[in-house]
Amino acid sequence: MKYRTHSCGEIRKADVGAEVRLAGWVDSIRHHGKVGFINLRDRYGITQILVKDDKLLNKIRELGHEWIIGVNGKVLARPKGMENPDLPTGEVDVEANEIEVISRSEIPPFVITDEARAKEELRLKYRYLDLRRHPMQEALIFKSELYQAIREYLHSRSFVNIETPILGRSTPEGARDFLVPSRLHPGKFYSLVQSPQIYKQLLMIAGFDRYYQFARCLRDEDQRKDRQPEHTQLDLELAFIDEESIFELVEGLMKHIFANLLGMELVIPFKRMQYNEALEKYGTEKPDIRYELFLSDVSQIAKKSEFKVFKEAEAIKCVKWKGDLSRKELEELDNVVKGYGLRLSWLKYKEGSFSGPICKFFSAELLKELEVEDKDACSLLFVAGNENRASLALGGVRNWLIEKYLPQRKEYRFIWIIDFPMFERDETTGEIVPSHHTFVMPKNPKQLEDKPESVIGKLYDLVLNGVELGSGSIRVHNRDLQEKIMKIIGFNEEQRERNFGCLLEALEYGAPPHGGIALGLDRLAMTILNKKSIQDVIAFPKTLTGVGLLEGIPSEVDDAQLNEVHIKVKSQNSTEKK
Ligand code: ASP
Predict the structure, then answer these.
(1) Residues near ligand 1 (Cβ within 6 A)
(2) pLDDT at 370
(3) Ligand 1 centroid to 386 CA: how many Å?
(4) Does the pLDDT value for residue 332 go beyond 80?
């Protein structure tokens, strides 16, 4: 028997008179005495089933929401005035002559509606029900099409799709590894790869000069908004290229995606901005350039004030907000700044005069230097501190203001951030660490020894509407230079061999110049679809603390399993004490 001749989204007026069979979930049931209506739903849409037959009317009284039924019936045109313009199938009904219960459902813990009304925990626990909601289905189908568009584009440009291992070696790549104990080799571990970085470089050395993969990346990080312990990247690597070729490739790819999936013409090339400029102007390395709200450096002026904090600070940054802010709002903004270990100071300007707690430290002359326009009421928000940190904190303030007050601009603004420093200092240990990863080609390798911190990397990030879509770089393809960089980062010979031995050796066997990028596909889908959270585009996400509510993970395993992999778990108390 055929379960269905049509989906619930495809019957139209042209089908009137046809005998059809549909199968789907009961979305709603309405009884009106001598007639009843069922909205039958599947992935493709909703069709209204009309029930007039007495026997069937009795039968549908037993049905509940989310039951699956099969319906045999005839397509009828809806009477004039009864059409539903909101439904693509809204001009027809299917009058049932047979209804069969295919699968029953418990009363669902929440109603399946477009808008997510249930609590997040409940939605995640019953994810298979949450995924029945139209926006979730739409998002996952969009992602599937996104993957398809990417494949098309890359295959037409000679890219080869190659899978690389998930079980890899634990390497210091920035985040913490998930470890997998080996059963066959007691005391030894695999690590779940954070990214296929080393493998894709090895593929270049192997001669596949254009590689891509939809790569699962696994990172045991403390969870933050829009991070998941596992996520999918479009991982790309190319040989015999420079930065320009990568920009062009990725811009072409985005253009293809937007044209094919959204029918939109993207303007390329994308704007480019140096990392320093992004930090100075926007207070972040992932600026949302849709909004023209800029930071300025007022150190020269503010240091002349009598305010001790300003006098002693390395730099004072300011955002001029054209509007008044309440005390409560200023407190909230101060909390944002406190998150960066600094404090907010402010002045208000209204009808020609300044006010605010630090006003008394500024002479009238000095206030003039702040160049506030006469007619505007505004709030001057200051953060003083170390140059970068003050910018970052004020960047946080900028984001807060945008989110709260500026109408959302429905446009897509891409920007490349370039010229990142190769290294930064770890704030806690003071040690030099790579600002991206170890394999980045320096722009000015001569400075590596004397002034590593001033070395700029051939590094680039792609940012869309303030969301970092991904990072990439041109890589080092010569062993000596690679080892020199690893030494600067503090890896001794033993560590270099242990962690990166296979790559270092491979670099000695004819390594072509190469580079690449990895773009977060969940973030791309989230940003294009304008979703609030990355969870809205992932079928089975974890919570912010890495918990899978559906499967109940992470979970204990039994002792036999632990024995097999030669692991003994410390008692809970001893782990808690740590
Ligand atoms: N492997 C890098 C990452 O995951 C991306 C790249 O450099 O291509 O961030």
Answers:
(1) 195, 197, 471-473, 516-518
(2) 86
(3) 29
(4) yes
**Is-same-fold flag (13-103; 291-405)?**
no
Residue nearest atom 1 of ligand 1, based on CA coordinates? 197
For the domain spanning 291-405, the CATH number is 3.30.1360.30
**237 CB neighbour count, 10 Å cutoff:** 29
Rounded to the nearest integer, the mean pLDDT of the chain is 94
| pLDDT at res. 306 | 94
How far is CA 360 from each of CA 323, 347, 363, rounded to the nearest angstrom?
Answer: 21, 10, 8
* Three-class DSSP labels, 67-120: CEEEEEEEEEECCCCCCCCCCCCCCEEEEEEEEEEEECCCCCCCCCCCCCCCCH
Answer yes or no: is pLDDT of 365 > 60: yes
| CATH numeric code, 13-103 | 2.40.50.140
Contact 472, 518 (CB under 8 A): yes
pTM of this prediction?
0.93
Specify the CATH number of the domain 136-244+414-560: 3.30.930.10
**Which ligand 1 atom minimizes the distance to the CA of 196?**
1
Query: Best of 471, 517, 519, 521 to mutate for ligand 1, by most ligand atoms within 8 A of CB?
Result: 471
- pLDDT for res 374: 66
